Amino acid sequence: MGDLHTTPSGAEPRVLIMTAVDAERQAVLRGLAGDPRFAAALAGVGPATAAARTMAALADGPPCRLVVSAGIAGGFAGAAAVETLVVADAVIAADLGAETPDGFRRVDELGFGESLAAVDAALAARAARALQAAGLPVRLGPVLTVSTVTGTAATAMELAARFPGAAAEAMEGYGVAVAAALRGVPVLEIRAVSNAVGPRDRSAWRMKEALAALEQAFAVLREVL
Length: 225
Ligand SMILES: O=C(O)c1cccc(C(=O)CC[C@H]2O[C@@H](n3cnc4c(=O)[nH]cnc43)[C@H](O)[C@@H]2O)c1
What we know:
Keywords: Glycosidase, Hydrolase, Menaquinone biosynthesis. Pfam families: PNP_UDP_1 (PF01048). By secondary structure, the chain is α/β, with parallel strands linked by helices. The protein has one domain (about 15-220): Nucleoside phosphorylase domain (Rossmann fold, 3-Layer(aba) Sandwich), CATH 3.40.50. The protein contains seven helices and ten strands. It has helices spanning about 20-30, 45-60, 105-110, 120-135, 155-160, 175-180, 205-220, and strands spanning about 15-20, 40, 65-75, 85-95, 95-100, 105, 115, 140-145, 170, 185-195. Strand 8, helix 5 and strand 9 form a beta-alpha-beta unit. Helix 1 packs parallel to helix 7 and helix 2 runs parallel beside helix 6. Residues about 1-5 have low confidence and may be disordered. Ligand LNDFFVEH binds near residues 73, 149 and 194.
């Protein structure tokens, strides 16, 4: 996996940052300004490829002390507006489960898995405080992992009701977190909101602004993580 890592390895275990696509990785690397304590690798889009690539990076690369799932995300109305940074205090596989006549049931309710992936809660809170102290808009809250980007108000409302307090949705966090947990490495998820969760409206996306927010976030976080 050496070609995925763009910062040289040091003697100390590094922080590995997994982004779905290269535009996100480049934003993170700009923020990190060449700091050799960090590496950034591509996870691909979606939880399955994110889990597989995180596992490969952890197995084949130098030792890591922390894995961060990072990138852009959709923000839930009233919780995280566009350009807000969201630090996950929980990572939830929001569409992993079953439809039943009584509605959606999470995989843990069904008794054959875990919907919730643990994050390093103390470090997440510290990261959110540091971003806030730097004057950046930040929210500490649950980040949902979905395999399908929400595209209607009805689905957005259903998810918000199913997971009260959800701040954002993205597509990789749960996969990254499962792989990190299997290797015994703590995990964080940090997102910059590029769009609202809800009706599909590509003209409303603020990709450039979200990537700039991601860069600013990692310029702060390199002193914290
Ligand atoms: O075509 C669409 O309507 C559409 C709407 C929002 C995002 C996409 C993407 O293909 C981006 C997926 C990519 O970015 C993360 N992301 C960003 N916004 C969201 C979102 O609202 N819901 C889920 N994921 C989002 C995600 O982690 C992927 O890496 C297309």
